[in-house]
């Protein structure tokens, strides 16, 4: 499996503080069946990381993984705060794609109102960027105005859901919204958004099984992520597979 969103790099954001912590995180990823991780450190006003730093730390981590015989490959990427876009030079922004495949991982704000969010994302599309929206189910503004996600998806934006959201690790409201997005066919990839080997561990398959999305595991964690990092056409999902998304208190059905 490919994990497109993981805070794997040491000492660069709120992920592992040291290379030892990064190695532990990657061992946990391997144990969970993940063989490729895209390192997505925060790029925001508090941690204004740049492509050169990310590339250097990615190379260092891959070197240590080879030495320690941990069978995981790490690719460079970034989780770019939408509120930080104006601070980034266009050339730098283009270097912060997921695995070099041309897709930007954009983080919406954790706020109940996010004026301009839709316009900023559409603006990126108009600049010929391709956009993956990070954990929309955890954004209060998108919980309040759920039509925005549909409009962005119709415009070509991919929705990346955190696996833990599907099983209630971020609360019941987030779980319900994640499953609503699944039932509507508005999930394109599921990621761990892991930050460490213990509290925010990597995991994908088990959470998808619990959420009734096991038939989509290969598409969500292999086919689509491989197309994103490879810069190739996004494959269509298996027919009807989203109809199995479930919540303990409610049966969700695919809506057209």
CA(first)-CA(last) distance: 29 Å
Which overall shape is indicated by the principal axes computed on the Cα atoms?
globular
Largest sheet: 6 strands, parallel
Mean model confidence by pLDDT? 94
Give the count of helical stretches: 9
Low-confidence stretches: 248-256
Can you tell me the number of structural domains?
A: 1
Query: Helix-strand pattern, N to C?
Result: EHEEHEEHEHEHHEHEHHEE
Measured as a percent range, the helix fraction is 25-40%
Major sheet: arrangement of strands: 3-5-6-7-8-9
CATH topology: TIM Barrel
CATH architecture: Alpha-Beta Barrel
How many beta strands in the DSSP annotation?
11
State the secondary-structure class. Answer: alpha/beta
Rg over CA atoms: 17 Å
What's the CATH C level? Alpha Beta
Name of the CATH homologous superfamily: Metal-dependent hydrolases
Name the beta content range: 15-25%
